[in-house]
Design a protein that fits this description.
The complex is a heterodimer of chains A (about 250) and B (about 270). In chain A, strand 1 and strand 2 form a beta hairpin. With about 250 residues, chain A is an alpha+beta fold. Helices cover about 40% and strands about 20% of the residues of chain A. Chain A contains six helices and ten strands, in the order H-E-E-E-E-H-H-E-E-E-E-H-H-E-E-H. Chain A has a single domain, classed as 4-Layer Sandwich (Glutamine Phosphoribosylpyrophosphate, subunit 1, domain 1), CATH 3.60.20. In chain A, helix 2 packs across helix 3. The radius of gyration of chain A is 20 Å and the shape is globular. Chain B is α+β, with helices and mostly antiparallel strands and about 270 residues long. Chain B contains seven helices and twelve strands. In chain B, helix 4 runs antiparallel to helix 5. Chain B is globular. The N and C termini of chain B lie far apart (about 80 Å). The chains are: A alpha+beta (about 250), B alpha+beta (about 270). The interface between A and B is small, with 9 and 11 residues. Chain B: This is Proteasome subunit beta. Chain B: InterPro entries: Ntn_hydrolases_N (IPR029055), Pept_T1A_subB (IPR000243), Proteasome_bsu_CS (IPR016050), Proteasome_sua/b (IPR001353), Proteasome_suB-type (IPR023333).
Chain lengths: ~250, ~270
């Protein structure tokens, strides 16, 4: 058999896999990404770096679809993401071919997580430097789901989650403010969460929504701006309400 | 397609590694292929004399209440009837059945293998595999062995989330979805009875009787079919064996022998 390169991901004396932990660091430096699950809708939002002047921003899409009913956003090394997304897309079609059924969100998440894990236990390769947020609808029951994977290859289901830069703050916000929502309310919640860490403005965030009937839809900058203004108006109203009562007494 | 040897792994450790006194556990089980480039012509004469090419009658159809599956139970090698009690309806799992036509060993082994794959799918995905998926798995495996001499003509019948399902799968790699199928040397006779008596709106008893009669008529005319006519029903709660009647007895049930008048007279005289 061919000689493998010396394995890069090996245990440390106190039981850590340093390469995996360094990969998580790379994720922490990546752009913030947030995902929220509603009763009939799932929303993904990603922080966009302020548009470089000459770059054609329409070509840079951070939220991608894996199949008609599944979408993915990620934080971390974008080049690694491209490879992972391609493999996942092939697997979605391969599943359709072998069992004549679209994949479930759980299945493709398990596949992506399995792929990420394989690269932590093979010789001569490094782990993928990204965490993904995967959203979609079950092809038969129509139930929406949100899953997250990370470089170690673990995955879990979430009602709402964030990854990437300042994900802890976003998650705290979501924990405080999450409730079962549907339709536009879910979109607003996702954008509000993202605005905690991103300078406000439609230019700096990219949002996509997915419904059972219409599949994945990227929101236009104008739409996002409109929702952001709505959110800011609500915030201002809340601030005003807080200040008003003491004056009355 | 890559040859699927997953069914050959982790079974018997004894692969005849040559040493009869202390058989060692072989590393990777594999089977050696014959030293021939033309698999279809390989030992064609031997195969022709045995001629157990799908000497059987099996049928299945979908109706209002579910799926009805029926088969005979004769195994023949040329003109020799090797068995009258072969189980030709194979229970893949509690809600899916497969029928056997062609090579008995091939059908039994690959249906068992399919059962394993279906169970693994259930465990991994926390939901039952559909009849569509199961039949596709089997068809893909058979396709990968195309030209190597497998003889399988099977119907996969079951009940899944989308309702009753029926697929015909064969060793050429073909896979057809349908509502009425009959496979085997007795199938033309079975089709005659089945097609003329079929209605979608039948009760379970009516459908079972139709299936039983179709098998009986096929065994009557086809030499390679006989034995016992088994009838199974697949419904929302899984499959259930409804009956297994000897076709000889079925013959006298459908066509009872009426004693002629002369004999009756003599009996009376004896009584008086």
């Amino acid at each position: 058999m061919a000689r493998y390169d010396r394995a890069i991901t090996v245990f440390s004396p106190d039981g850590h896999l340093f390469q995996v932990e360094y990969a998580l660091e790379a994720v922490r430096k990546g752009n913030a990404a947030v995902g929220v699950r509603g009763t009939d809708i799932v929303v993904l939002g990603v922080e966009k770096k302020s548009a470089v002047k000459l770059q054609d921003s329409r070509m840079v899409r951070k939220i991608v679809s894996l199949d008609n009913h599944i979408a993915l956003a990620c934080a971390g090394l974008k080049a690694d993401a491209r490879v992972l997304v391609n493999r996942a897309r092939i697997e979605c079609q391969s599943h359709r071919l072998t069992v004549e059924d679209p994949v479930t969100v759980e299945y493709i998440t398990r596949y992506i997580a399995g792929l990420q894990q394989k690269y932590t236990q093979s010789g001569g390769v490094r782990p993928f430097g990204l965490s993904t947020l995967i959203v979609g609808f079950d092809p038969y029951t129509g139930v929406p789901s949100l899953y997250q994977t990370d470089p170690s290859g673990t995955f879990s289901a979430w009602k709402a989650n964030a990854t990437g830069r300042n994900s802890n703050s976003i998650r705290e916000f979501l924990e405080k403010n999450y409730k079962e929502t549907s339709g536009q309310e879910t979109v607003k919640l996702a954008i509000r969460a993202l605005l905690e860490v991103v300078e406000s403005g439609g230019k700096n965030i990219e949002v996509a929504v997915m419904t059972r009937e219409h599949g994945l839809r990227q929101l236009e900058e104008a739409e996002i701006d409109a929702i952001v203004s709505e959110i800011e108006a609500e915030k201002a109203a809340a601030e005003a309400a807080k200040k008003a009562p003491p004056k009355e007494t | 397609m890559k040859l699927d040897t997953s069914g050959l792994e982790s079974t018997s450790p004894f692969f005849g590694s040559g040493d009869e006194l202390c058989p060692e556990l072989s590393a990777a089980p594999s089977f050696s292929l014959p030293l021939s480039t033309d698999f279809d012509e390989f030992q064609k004469d031997t195969k022709a004399t045995l001629k157990h090419a799908k000497g059987t009658t099996t049928l299945a159809f979908i109706f209002k209440e579910g799926v009805m599956v029926a088969a005979d139970s004769r195994a023949s090698m040329g003109g020799y009837i090797s068995s009258q009690s072969v189980k030709k309806i194979i229970e893949i799992n509690p809600y899916m059945l497969g029928t056997m036509a062609g090579g008995a060993a091939d059908c039994q082994f690959w249906h068992r293998n399919l059962g394993i794959k279906c169970r693994l799918h259930e465990l991994a995905n926390k939901r039952r595999i559909s009849v569509t998926g199961a039949s596709k798995l089997l068809a893909n495996i058979l396709y990968s062995y195309r030209g190597m001499g497998l003889s399988v003509g099977t119907m996969i019948a079951g009940w899944d989330e989308t309702g009753p399902g029926l697929y015909y799968v064969d060793s050429e790699g073909g896979r057809l979805k349908g509502t009425r199928f009959s496979v085997g040397s007795g199938s033309p006779y079975a089709y005659g009875v089945l097609d003329s008596g079929y209605k979608f709106d039948m009760s379970i008893e009516e459908a079972a009787e139709l299936a039983r009669r179709a098998i009986y008529h096929a065994t009557f005319r086809d030499a390679a079919s006989g034995g016992v006519a088994s009838v199974y029903y697949v419904g929302p709660n899984g499959w259930k064996k409804l009956s297994g009647d000897d076709v000889g007895e079925l013959h006298y049930h459908y066509y009872p022998v009426t004693p002629s008048t002369v004999e009756q007279e003599m009996a009376e005289v004896a009584g008086a």
